[in-house]
Design goal:
CATH superfamily of the largest domain: Crotonobetainyl-coa:carnitine coa-transferase, domain 1
Strand content: 15-25%
Structural class: alpha/beta
Strand order of the largest sheet: 8-7-6-1-2-5-14
CATH architecture of the largest domain: 3-Layer(aba) Sandwich
Helix content: 25-40%
Number of domains: 2
Largest sheet: 7 strands, mixed
Number of helices: 17
Length: 403
């Protein structure tokens, strides 16, 4: 029975087919699942998604995998087999969205290219995710978050002082691309509601991440005319104040902010002087004035600093260690995390969906699938008999796993 959209499940009734390894399409599809979509994850029968064993795990399933795959069904089938190609074609015939992150040309070579599947189902939205794009000298190269961080300028962004390239130590590019994929897919669904036609969408990690960094990270390289007024790049504005008992993240902008901040740091004589005097002067010389936050003369501690900053209405927050995130009152207050129990992984904690449709919190306290956990049921839905499925299992073309 088909579900219909509601205010807090706007994608109910939408079927998404995900063929991917690692984060990008997995997280995009899980985001759509949180909004009501029915997601079938198609994985290789041997090993499945490469995320499955990576990191802290239980019963062969890692927290890393779980965090990108909640609420899906898993079909473990070999796409190099006739049965695998036939199964995906049958899934595509009834699907609304198909996501994959194979290298350019791979899906065409195995007979599952965009033209083939959209001829079967003209309403299908086919999203092909690549690392470097479909053209150019790097189009066929393997891509991973780390290498995209390098080419998109993030490793330079992290090295303003010692000129040594460094990473943002999270899979930033994978996750930025995932949200780009999710937004594009849902926009295409909206267009289909008017045109009654699906479409092909290409999205590269490189392009997504350049677009993500550009508004602030490249603000100083956007205007090209010679009469432009030079200002500091956005990266110069990110400073923390470190005390012996911890750190404070702070974003002072107004004159009144600096009038309170400088005395707190032990530099009262700098209020209203030189490069500290006004917003234009500070924004033009941010790298040269940030030393006051890097080297506070007064070690007043985090609690007292927060009191002073809050009283002056300066945007601020304590710097929290990752292991302490679950205990933070503000995070508890907004219901950003939920703890629940699954049969495979036991008790676990994950984020709740951040989009509060209708202003109401929702939950995604669902299990992530075992490899091929739903293979039999999905293949039966597509017309295979139990005996033919058993034959595919014997041939190694299909995997079925139960706890």
């Amino acid at each position: 029975m088909k579900n219909f959209p509601t205010a807090n499940q706007p994608l109910a009734g939408i079927e998404v087919i995900e063929l991917s390894n690692m984060i990008t399409c997995s997280l995009a599809a899980m985001t759509m699942a949180a909004q009501g979509a029915n997601v079938i994850k198609v994985e290789p029968p041997l090993g499945g998604d490469q995320m499955r064993p990576l990191g802290t795990q239980k019963n062969g399933v890692s927290g890393f995998f779980h965090n990108c795959n909640r609420g899906k069904r898993s079909l473990a089938i070999d796409l190099k087999s006739e049965a695998g190609v036939e199964a995906v074609k049958k899934l595509a015939a009834r699907a609304d969205v198909l996501l994959h992150n194979y290298r350019p040309g791979v899906m065409d070579r195995i007979g599952l290219g965009s033209d083939v599947l959209r001829e079967i189902n003209p309403k299908l939205i086919y999203v092909a995710v690549s690392g470097f794009g479909t053209k150019g000298p790097m189009a066929d190269l393997p891509a991973f978050d780390h290498v995209i961080q390098g080419l998109a300028g993030f490793t330079d962004l992290q090295a303003p002082e010692n000129n040594k390239f460094d990473f943002i130590r999270t899979f930033l590019c994978d996750k930025v691309t995932a949200y780009t994929v999710c937004q594009a897919a849902t926009a295409a669904l909206l267009a289909r509601a008017t045109t009654s036609k699906g479409q092909h969408i290409d999205i590269s990690m490189l392009h997504s991440c350049l677009a993500f960094m550009w508004p602030d990270g490249m603000m100083h390289r956007t205007l090209k005319d010679d009469d432009k007024i030079e200002m500091s790049p956005g990266s110069d504005y990110f400073q923390t104040i470190n005390y012996t008992d911890g750190g404070v993240a702070v974003a002072p902008l107004k004159d009144s902010h600096w009038e309170a901040l400088l005395p707190m740091l032990g530099y009262p004589e700098l209020v209203g002087t030189g490069n500290f005097a006004s917003i234009p002067q500070r924004m033009t010389n941010m790298s040269s004035i940030s030393y006051v936050m890097k080297e506070p003369r007064l070690d007043i501690g985090v609690e007292k600093a927060m009191e002073v900053l809050a009283a002056a209405d300066i945007p601020c927050a304590p710097c929290v260690k990752r292991d302490d995130i679950e205990s933070i009152d503000q995070i508890k207050a907004i219901g950003a995390l939920e703890t629940y129990v699954t049969e495979t992984l036991g008790e676990l904690t994950v984020p709740t969906p951040p989009a509060l449709f209708g202003g109401e919190s929702t939950s995604q306290a669902e299990p992530s699938p075992l490899l091929g956990e739903h293979s039999r049921n999905i293949l039966i839905e597509l017309g295979w008999s139990d005996s033919s499925i058993d034959d595919l299992v014997d041939l190694g073309h299909v995997a079925i796993t139960k706890l």
